[in-house]
Amino acid sequence: MEERMSANGKEYEVRALLGKGKGGYSYLVWDGESQYVLKQIHHEPCDYYQFGDKLQSERDAYRWLKQIGIRMPELIEVDVERERILKEYIEGSTIFELVCQDRMQPAYLEQVQAMCALLYAANTNIDYYPTNFVVREGELFYIDYECNQYMEKWNFENWGVKYWSRTEEFLRCHGG
After folding, report:
1. Listed residue (5, 2, 1, 29) closest to 15, CA to CA
2. What is the pLDDT of residues 63-88, one digit of tens each?
3. In angstroms, what CA-CA distances link 69 with 89, 103, 114, 142, 176?
4. 12 exposed, middle or buried (CB, 10 Å; 0-12, 13-18, 19+)?
């Protein structure tokens, strides 16, 4: 029997678990015509992060990041009752995959630095971890809907960049 999930009454075939983050599980789903990402919010504890209303936080972050001009997947719909978010699927390799395969390009760093210029001017940080970025046809997309008030400690230059190359931190975390 194939696994299915729904959002606001519409059924989707689950094709794969794409990943688990602080806020939920993201699945690749299919409606018979197109693929999407369906994120199921979870309420598992996280030692290093405090949440309020995760679903509302994602909705607010999406609106804010779009307003700033960050390239990201479109939010298609929100199922409040089931705590699910349906968004555009951005097909491509994650920065994490590209780092592991020694396929990083200077253009990807230039694009994240251009995002940083927009974010920092808006007093905002995003989660710079490399699984949160996908490259499609040479363009970098931030695929998470998380953002926080800017703190220098958590900006790209002081935290994220450590995981965008095969540094000691990257290798220690990923057994490379």
Report:
1. 29
2. 999 999 999 999 999 999 999 999 99
3. 19, 26, 10, 11, 34
4. buried
CA distances from 152 to 8, 103, 116, 148 (A): 39, 28, 12, 12
Q: Is 120 exposed, middle or buried (0-12, 13-18, 19+ CB in 10 A)?
A: middle
Question: What's the pLDDT band for 23 if we cut at 50, 70, 90?
Answer: confident
Q: What is the largest CA-CA distance in the chain?
A: 50
Contact 8, 131 (CB under 8 A): no
For residues 87 and 39, is the Cβ–Cβ distance under 8 A?
yes
Mean of pLDDT values over 2-19: 94
Among 44-53, 96-105, 160-169, the minimum mean pLDDT is found in 44-53
CA–CA separation, 171 and 140 (whole Å): 23
Element (H, E) at 156: none
